[in-house]
Amino acid sequence: MVMRRLVAIALTVPLLAAPAFATTMVALDTPDLYRAADAVALVRIGDVHAEQTGGHVTTFADLEVAEAFKGATAGAHVRALSPGGTVGHIGSQVGGAPTLVSGTTCVVFLEKVAPDVYRFVGLEQGKLDVTTSDAGMAGVRRNHTAALLRRTPTGELRPSAPLPEVEPLDAYLHELRVLAEGAR
User: Fold this and answer.
1) Cα gap 11→154, rounded to integer Å
2) Is residue 98 a contact partner of residue 82, using CB atoms and an 8 Å limit?
């Protein structure tokens, strides 16, 4: 009996030490993201590095603009931040924060937070990875790790219907161009 309790405790204690991540956000579709953004662009991620300031770790990325739809210029470089990252032996993970990988291409929706610094609108919702299927078709992929909610007409928050995981890149860029034209 004592042995069973010891085994149960030994199996339970590691679970208590495991990190738990839970982020809930209001779902943003493409027009919502576009309206909320100061800059919208197709970019290639360059240098990525993390910095620790005031006890917080933040990851910064240099984004090279390939095509601009709002508030940016093709060929320009934009500095974007994402909460979390690793500096030396200190790591911080923020649920729902976008993952930034040097050399990848993505569509970004950015909000200006300082003269030359942006953050992603809706955290990971503001970064869609450009992917290529096995058949060679280019698409944009939403990376949602957070629980997404939608506001009902009465103002209540309810679980969001799933957004398409992958959309054809050409159709998505066309949608952004239409939004850009409508904003002029």
Assistant:
1) 46
2) yes
A 10 A CB-CB count for 124 gives: 21
Contact 75, 51 (CB under 8 A): no
Instruction: Please tell me the pTM assigned to this model.
Output: 0.82
Q: Which residues contact 167 (CB under 8 A, 6 or more apart)?
A: 139, 140
Class of 21-183 in CATH: mainly beta
Q: Strand 157-159 vs strand 147-151: parallel, antiparallel, or unpaired?
A: antiparallel
Q: Contacts from 74-79 at CB under 8 Å and sequence distance 24+?
A: 77/46, 78/39, 78/41, 78/43, 78/110, 78/118, 79/116, 79/117, 79/118
Angle ∠(183,177,118) on CA atoms, nearest 5: 75
- For the chain, 184 residues long, give each residue's pLDDT as a single digit of tens: 544 554 344 444 444 444 444 577 777 889 999 999 999 999 999 999 999 988 889 999 999 999 999 999 999 999 999 999 999 888 888 888 999 999 999 999 999 999 889 999 999 999 999 999 889 999 999 877 667 787 888 888 888 777 677 899 999 999 999 999 987 6
3-state secondary structure (DSSP) of residue 183: helix
SS3 content of the chain, % helix, strand, coil (to 5): 25, 45, 35
CA distance 122 to 164: 17
